[in-house]
Specification:
alpha/beta; 27% helix; globular; Spore Coat Polysaccharide Biosynthesis Protein SpsA, Chain A; 2 domains; 8-stranded mixed sheet; two-stranded antiparallel sheet
Length: 232
C-alpha cells in the first residue's frame, strides 16, 4: 500500500509565524514532521504551503515542496481544496498514494505510535474511510452550548428531553483533533462524508487520545510548551 505524509501549513495566521515559533529550539512544525518520519510505513513526504520559509524548513526535514496558490492560503480557504491541490500535484508526478497521512503544521502534540496505530487499523479494515484522533470533552458538550439571539441565550441545538446540568451525566462528547488524520485518498476526491469534514468519507474511525492542541493563540503556544515539557 502506497502511503504518503502531507504536512499543511499556512504562512498567514492570527498568531504570526505560529508554525515556525520555537519550542525547545525546534520550530512547531518540526514535531509533526519528525514523528511522521519515524513511521517506516510512510515512504514519501510532502509539504503544502504558500510560504517559502515553511517550504524550505520542511525541505531540510526531507519533505518535498508543494507550492500552494495564494487563493488556497486565505483565512476562509478550505482544507479539502488544499488536499485536492496536493493530490493533483502527486498525479502530475505520476504518483498516487492509497493512504494520506495529513499532518497539521501548528499541532506539535503528536506521537509516532498514534500515527502507526491508525495506519495499521485502516489497513486491516477496508470499510474504514479515515481515522481521526479525538479527545473527550464533556465540559463543552453540545447539549451545553448556547447561542445569542436578540440579546438572549438560547440552546444551540433543539433539546426535547430533560438533561442534567452535571457533565458526568451527559452522553460522552468527543471532538476531532487537528494534529493528524489518516485518510484513504479516494475519499478526499469523493468528498461525501459527514459535515464539516466531508473529505474523510462516511466511515471515520475514532482514535481516542488524552491531549491535543493546535496552536492559534499565544496562550495555546505557552500551554503547548508546558505539555511538551511534562510529556504526554
Amino acid at each position: 500500500m502506497k502511503i504518503a505524509a502531507l504536512l499543511t501549513a499556512k504562512g498567514t495566521s492570527e498568531l504570526k509565524d505560529k508554525n515556525t515559533l520555537k519550542i525547545n529550539k525546534k520550530p512547531v512544525l518540526w514535531y509533526p514532521c519528525s514523528e511522521a518520519k519515524k513511521v517506516n510505513e510512510i515512504k514519501k513526504f510532502f509539504v503544502s504551503s504558500e510560504d517559502e520559509s515553511i517550504l524550505n524548513i520542511c525541505k531540510k526535514y526531507g519533505y518535498e515542496k508543494i507550492k500552494r496558490p495564494i487563493n488556497l492560503s486565505k483565512p476562509n480557504s478550505k482544507h479539502e481544496d488544499v488536499l485536492k491541490h496536493s493530490i493533483n500535484f502527486f498525479k502530475s508526478k505520476g504518483y498516487y498514494p492509497e493512504l494520506l497521512v495529513v499532518l497539521l503544521g501548528n499541532a506539535p502534540i503528536i506521537k509516532k505510535k498514534w500515527i502507526l496505530d491508525c495506519i495499521k487499523a485502516i489497513k486491516k479494515n477496508k470499510n474504514i474511510t479515515a481515522i481521526a484522533p479525538v479527545i473527550l470533552n464533556n465540559d463543552h458538550n453540545p447539549l451545553r452550548a448556547k447561542m445569542i439571539k436578540k440579546n438572549k441565550l438560547v440552546n444551540f441545538i433543539d433539546i426535547k428531553k430533560k438533561i442534567s446540568t452535571n457533565r458526568q451525566q451527559l452522553p460522552k462528547s468527543y471532538f476531532l483533533c487537528h494534529n493528524f488524520w489518516v485518510i484513504r485518498t479516494k475519499e478526499i476526491l469523493k468528498n461525501n462524508g459527514e459535515q464539516p469534514w466531508k473529505f474523510m468519507g462516511k466511515n471515520v474511525m475514532p482514535y481516542v487520545i488524552e491531549k491535543s492542541i493546535d496552536i492559534h493563540t499565544i496562550e495555546d503556544f505557552h500551554l503547548t510548551k508546558i505539555i511538551l515539557k511534562q510529556g504526554f
